[in-house]
TrEMBL record:
<keyword id="KW-0472">Membrane</keyword>
<dbReference type="InterPro" id="IPR013092">
    <property type="entry name" value="Connexin_N"/>
</dbReference>
<keyword id="KW-0732">Signal</keyword>
<feature type="domain" description="Connexin N-terminal">
    <location>
        <begin position="20"/>
        <end position="53"/>
    </location>
</feature>
<dbReference type="GO" id="GO:0005922">
    <property type="term" value="C:connexin complex"/>
</dbReference>
<feature type="signal peptide">
    <location>
        <begin position="1"/>
        <end position="18"/>
    </location>
</feature>
<dbReference type="InterPro" id="IPR000500">
    <property type="entry name" value="Connexin"/>
</dbReference>
<keyword id="KW-0965">Cell junction</keyword>
<keyword id="KW-1133">Transmembrane helix</keyword>
<dbReference type="GO" id="GO:0005243">
    <property type="term" value="F:gap junction channel activity"/>
</dbReference>
<keyword id="KW-1003">Cell membrane</keyword>
<keyword id="KW-0303">Gap junction</keyword>
<dbReference type="InterPro" id="IPR038359">
    <property type="entry name" value="Connexin_N_sf"/>
</dbReference>
<protein>
    <recommendedName>
        <fullName>Connexin N-terminal domain-containing protein</fullName>
    </recommendedName>
</protein>
<dbReference type="Pfam" id="PF00029">
    <property type="entry name" value="Connexin"/>
</dbReference>
<dbReference type="GO" id="GO:0007267">
    <property type="term" value="P:cell-cell signaling"/>
</dbReference>
<dbReference type="InterPro" id="IPR017990">
    <property type="entry name" value="Connexin_CS"/>
</dbReference>
């Protein structure tokens, strides 16, 4: 249950706080030349990935093993039904709400 709480907390932080804090990352960034496009190139060189993209990538990496396990688990546990795109929200809810049986 701790992993579920951590994942939900991370998603909330990224969705609520992260975008407002990092939405204007480049406004105060200054380049040492006035050449067109230098500001964007210098910023990309200094900061190759934004914080928001890193956080979303991290959340995806944390959730992927659980989703893979649920997707490829024993079909008898699902009552013999095959998975479809429509069952994905139910699977995600199961992963986020169901506590670890260990």
């Amino acid at each position: 249950i701790l992993l579920t709480v951590v994942v939900i907390f991370r998603i909330l932080i990224v969705a609520i706080v992260g975008e407002t804090v990092y939405e204007d990352e480049q406004t105060m960034f200054m380049c040492n030349t006035l050449q067109p496009g230098c500001n964007q190139a210098c910023y990309d060189k200094a900061f190759p990935i934004s914080h928001i993209r890193y956080w979303v990538f991290q959340i995806i990496l944390v959730c992927t093993p659980s989703l893979c396990f649920i997707t490829y688990s024993d079909p008898a546990d699902r009552g013999g039904h095959s998975l479809s795109l429509w069952s994905l929200p139910r699977i995600l809810l199961t992963v986020l709400v169901t506590p670890c049986p260990c």
